[in-house]
Specification:
- With about 300 residues, the protein is of the alpha+beta class.
- It is built from 8 helices and 13 strands.
- Strands 1, 2, 3, 4, 10, 11, 12 and 13 form an 8-stranded antiparallel sheet that branches. The chain has a 5-stranded antiparallel sheet with strand order 7-6-5-9-8.
- The chain is globular.
């Protein structure tokens, strides 16, 4: 009932604002302009946006995306099919900014973006650093602006400690970027954005990392995410199917046929029904615990 009441109140407010704008009443316009900044979306608003996108969405508003790798496990799994809200971080207009809750990417948000090393590929990671942040990793522990982050969403699935992976910035990592551009971006970041042993996130850029921290090719290896590369934020898992990276990432005719046969044979048994229609939330700083969290190994076969 409370959710229904909230939805009715939001709808009534939007109708009132639309009538005021239509009538072009100066006093009403002044009242709208003086309203405080729209608060973050709550669950009701997220569901409302999700339903609207499902009913009326086009590629302008929403984009389907599938998770092909395990870099975000166990938050997002290989085979999770997502709907991405492309309006969340869109630039606001003169009137639309009072109606739609536009926002800038913030700590803990999960974002979908064009891979800086090859914009034909799309990645999903978590925002760890925003412009001006100072970041460093020491033996897997992440420090932001001098404060150690206790990150309950991070999973460590490898037992070994790797000095080149778990300390950052440090010696060049053993990972070889997949494209020459990615390698150049990594070198540029390490050459121009390290101050007193910390990475400083530049203007209009973001530092993104995967939750599967030991197996994530993220900003440590190819630099920052430019603001203009960010497509949106995932809002819902509309379907989840247990598959392999090869099944989902293959683009040949043979791989498509193989995946189609697999779906026909195992659709019901390999669909993760418990994840269907799960909303996806970020993890704001206000929810980070002030005590150290135990090492989370996650599920070895999610």
């Amino acid at each position: 009932m409370a959710a229904l009441k909230d939805t009715i109140e939001v709808t009534a407010k939007l109708q009132k604002m639309a009538e005021q704008i239509k009538d072009k009443k100066p006093a009403a316009a002044a009242e709208i302009a003086s309203e405080p900044k729209e608060p973050p979306r709550n669950s009701v608003a997220e569901w409302a946006v999700t339903i609207l996108l499902l009913l009326f969405g086009t590629t302008t508003l929403v984009q389907a995306f599938v998770i092909p790798t395990g870099s975000m496990e166990d938050t997002l799994l290989i085979g999770d099919h997502l709907l991405v809200d492309k309006l969340a971080y869109a630039p606001s207009g003169a009137i639309s900014k009072y109606i739609l809750p536009y926002e800038e990417p913030k700590h803990g948000d999960i974002i979908v973006f064009r891979f800086p090393g090859d914009i034909s590929n799309t990645f999903v990671k978590r925002v760890i650093g925003v412009p001006g942040d100072h970041l460093r990793m020491v033996r897997r522990d992440l420090y932001r602006n001098g404060v150690k982050l206790n990150e309950p969403y991070v999973y460590h699935k490898k037992d070994d400690y790797d000095e080149t992976r778990d300390n950052f910035p440090g010696d060049p990592t053993p990972y070889q970027p997949s494209t020459p551009l990615a390698a150049d971006l990594q070198r540029k970041m390490l050459a121009e954005n390290v101050v007193n042993g910390e990475i400083v996130v530049p203007k209009n850029s973001y530092f993104a990392m995967g939750d599967n921290r030991d197996n994530s090719l993220d900003s440590r290896y190819w630099g920052f995410v430019p603001r203009e590369n960010i497509i949106g934020k995932p809002i819902i898992i509309y379907w989840s199917y247990r598959a392999t990276t090869d099944d989902l990432a293959g683009s040949s005719f043979g791989s498509l046929v193989s995946h189609g046969v697999d779906l026909a044979q195992h659709f019901f048994s390999r669909t993760r029904w418990s994840r269907t229609l799960n909303l996806i939330h970020g993890f704001p700083d206000s929810q980070l615990p002030n005590h150290e969290v135990p090492l989370n190994r996650g599920n070895p076969n999610p």
